[in-house]
From TrEMBL:
SUPFAM superfamilies: CO dehydrogenase molybdoprotein N-domain-like (SSF54665), Molybdenum cofactor-binding domain (SSF56003). Pfam families: Ald_Xan_dh_C (PF01315), MoCoBD_1 (PF02738), MoCoBD_2 (PF20256). Residues 39-145 form the Aldehyde oxidase/xanthine dehydrogenase a/b hammerhead domain. Residues 1-13 have a biased composition (Low complexity). It comes from Streptomyces werraensis. This is Molybdopterin cofactor-binding domain-containing protein.
């Protein structure tokens, strides 16, 4: 991968001579845990140990749909070394829970609804014993025909007491009778992408003397996990404590109740610490995935290419349980037209239950699927009108003050035209040479079977958008405390560091506000006030905002005595490089001297402005803020073999403000690479509801060899006035946009429609007439 991205981001911030370590906002402050992670000493949940430890294993259903006739745990309980076996009968509290809608059982009791659904869990003195005991649980099934086609879910027998339809959003905006001179249509399918965490799920449960339990988990929403666990265990919330261990990356929710709840139940039943470390297969079976989606589109435009009306039908496959499908559907319907001005829009969106694996939150949920479809429609429109694909997009792009199809006015910066022009005008990479020495440039890699004469180059574009924070009335709030004593600052905030860089950002905020170099962020547990889930850029906004407010309150406490002594207001004092000075130079002292051994602290909250649910016509101010991105993809396609090589991805992004240049560049590169996987290789295959090849051999993640040159050609720093620091989330919108750009480039190279993601080789083959 090219280093140019990082160079682009850090060029202005890098000093000519390194005189001091980087500090404060705008500097590339390194992550505090970077060395430990690099050296392999960082404590992950899989590394935890406790005296008297037992090991857990979970029995999962081999069927996607079956009626449970009986569960016999006798043989498992009698095995030497087995300490406990739990099923649905051993759940003392609420048996059915869920992240969004409570419809997912802790253990299946009467019906199995998806492959891998948990039925029982075992605790034993050795991990092999636990697994053998789980396998010894005898379950008698009456196998039922699975419903795996979401279109059939409307007419199928109900898979759940709540029915098969989770949510329907009929969006109505403008004149239904409006018609354009040019009409293009398309049918699109988006596959099931797995979050594929670096580390499989693991955890440790330790019983407490008061009858409660402590869970050590790689959680991204510890307070939400605590509430879920307490309800299942029949305990009060203060009897359950979640301690967040090292999170080995999270590109989706890691609140997987099929792992953590059996763990806690076993610890409570045995009175011993119990550890679970999932295999990669169990990880694939247990956690949620991106929603597979079927999309039908019809775009109307005038003779000049200006959009007149967009009609769409969007069907999300939620799998066996609702989860966060309602949220994903709202994003898909609201952003179904993309960052374009569309005066008339009529969108029908549905999320339905099937017997496929459950779907849930993955970066850019809902927005990624529709982006691939509406950008394919823009390519079709350009082709039909004989226009350049970039030009037809520029004629329709959204700007600040325009209105979404939901009726919400875009009040945040929306520099979409500037982003598109930046990637369009960026120099194209050189063409590969047709020589044996450069065969590695061919699609297929070194010693590929292709011929240079069969390679075609294509250039394509993608424009994407995502919402930040929760939507439709979600109460987004975070709390933080900042303490300062003896020249050292401490931050307490339950915002989990998932790789997004919050811990680094918190240190930078305190350094910037208080002029203190040494800042420590306390490890997260549920004894701290809640900060919410680590997704949709929440912690940059609400948790970073809470830290900033707390630090400013401490700053006021620090400066007020000095201001009073010298007869001036605190606004006339500034803190720079650890020194406090007045505007007139009369006062000059250090922060340490001003502290004079005192301890100062403050607690603050940050809560953005409220939103509202979409109404019966899909209308409402549902989103706090929106981020935009443009990607230009350059690909080489072997039109005989259908193999695709992404040569370069040029990215321009609306970031509000760069808070940490190196960290921001890394987040964008990571997002683009995840989008590359969705475009070309990542598809968790589930024939008849069965997960096929649940491992990293059968599921093809992009590697460093697959990553193209990623050029961050422009960052638009137009600050969002309602966001703390004016910054926007950066990692989700490249995931949303890059698959659409890659598909657009393959269309340009082959002339084929490319209406499915990931792109299959046969979709890129060009046959001669």
């Amino acid at each position: 991968m090219s280093n140019e991205a990082a160079t682009v981001q850090t060029a202005e911030a890098a000093p000519e001579e390194e005189t001091a370590p980087p500090r404060g906002l705008g500097a590339s402050l390194p992550a505090a845990d970077a060395r430990a992670k690099t050296e392999g000493t960082f404590p992950y949940a899989a590394d935890l140990w406790a005296e008297g430890l037992l090991w857990a294993a979970v029995l999962r259903s081999p069927h996607p749909h079956a009626r449970i006739k009986s569960i016999d745990t006798t043989h498992a309980r009698e095995m030497p070394g087995v300490r406990a076996v739990v099923t649905h009968e051993d759940v003392p509290g609420t048996p059915v829970l869920g992240r969004g809608k409570a419809d997912r059982p802790v253990f299946a009791s009467e019906v199995v609804r998806h492959h891998g659904e948990p039925l029982a869990a075992v605790a034993a003195d050795h991990p092999d014993t636990a697994r053998m005991a789980a396998a010894a649980v005898i379950v008698e099934y009456e196998v039922l025909d699975p419903v795996t086609d979401p279109e059939q879910a409307f007419e199928a027998e109900p898979l759940h007491p709540d029915g098969n339809l989770i949510r329907h959003i009929p969006l109505r905006h403008g004149d239904a009778d409006a018609v354009g001179e040019v009409v293009v249509e398309g049918l699109y399918r988006i596959g099931r992408q797995d979050p594929a965490p670096i580390g499989a799920e693991a955890g440790l449960a330790v019983p407490r003397p008061d009858g409660g339990v402590e869970l050590y988990l790689a959680s991204t929403d510890p307070h939400g996990d605590r509430d879920t666990a307490a309800a299942a265990f029949g305990l009060q919330q203060d009897q359950v404590k979640i301690v967040v261990t090292g999170v080995p990356g999270a590109t989706a929710d890691r609140e997987d109740q099929s792992f953590q709840l059996p763990l806690g139940l076993l610890a409570l039943k045995t009175g011993c610490p119990v550890k679970l470390a999932a295999t990669r297969e169990e990880s694939f079976l247990g956690h949620t995935h991106r929603h597979p989606t079927l999309l039908r589109y019809r775009h109307h435009a005038d003779a000049e290419g200006k959009l007149v009306k967009v009609e769409a039908q969007i069907l999300l496959d939620a799998g066996a349980y609702a989860g966060t499908s309602s949220d994903a559907l709202a994003a898909a319907v609201a952003f179904a037209c993309g960052p374009y001005v569309v005066p008339n829009a009529f969108i029908e969106g549905w999320a339905v239950r099937t017997n496929n694996p459950p779907s849930g939150h993955v970066r850019g949920e809902g927005a990624m699927q529709v982006c691939a479809a509406y950008e394919a429609q823009m390519d079709k429109l350009a082709k039909k009108l004989g226009l350049d694909p970039a030009e037809v997009r520029l004629r329709n792009v959204m700007a600040t003050g325009d209105v979404l199809p939901t009726g919400q006015t875009v009040t945040c910066p929306a520099p979409v035209a500037e982003l598109l022009e930046a990637v369009r005008d960026f120099p194209l990479p050189p063409l590969p040479k047709d020589t044996p020495e450069d065969e590695w440039l061919l699609p297929g890699g070194p010693e590929g079977a292709g011929e240079p004469a069969a390679v075609r180059r294509g250039v394509g574009y993608g424009l994407g958008m995502v919402h930040m924070l929760g939507a439709e009335g979600a109460d987004e709030v975070s709390t933080a405390t900042v303490r300062v004593q003896n020249g050292v600052a401490t931050v307490l905030c339950a915002a989990v560091e998932t790789g997004q860089g919050f811990s680094t950002l918190a240190r930078q905020i305190v350094q910037e506000t208080l002029g203190i170099d040494e800042v420590h962020v306390v490890p997260v547990d549920t004894d701290q006030p809640p900060a919410g889930a680590g997704c949709r850029g929440r912690h940059t906004w609400v948790s970073g905002g809470a830290v900033e407010r707390a630090a400013k309150m401490v700053r006021t406490q620090l400066l007020q005595p000095l201001a009073h002594k010298f007869g001036m207001s605190t606004e006339l004092l500034q803190i720079t490089d650890g020194k406090i000075t007045s505007y007139d130079g009369v006062l000059s002292t250090t922060v340490t001297e001003a502290m004079d051994g005192k301890e100062l602290w403050a607690t603050a909250q940050c809560r953005p402005h409220p939103t509202e649910p979409l109404d019966d016509a899909g209308q409402g101010d549902a989103f706090v803020g929106i981020a935009f991105c443009a990607v230009r993809a350059v690909v080489d396609v072997d039109i005989e073999l259908g193999s695709v090589r992404v040569v370069e991805l040029a990215v321009a992004q609306d970031v509000g403000r760069v808070l940490n240049p190196a960290q921001l560049a890394a987040r964008i590169e990571a997002g683009v690479t995840q989008g590359l996987g969705a475009a070309l290789t990542e598809n968790l295959r589930t024939p008849r509801g069965l997960i096929r090849h649940p491992d990293l051999t059968g599921y093809a993640l992009p590697t460093a060899l697959d990553a193209p040159d990623i050029r961050i050609v422009k960052l638009v720093e137009e600050r969002d006035v309602v966001a703390p620091f004016g910054a926007k989330a950066v990692s989700a919108v490249p995931v949303v946009t890059s698959p659409a750009a890659i598909a657009s480039a393959v269309r340009a190279a082959t002339g084929r429609p490319v209406n499915r993601l990931p792109i299959r080789p046969q979709a890129a083959v060009v046959t001669s007439n």
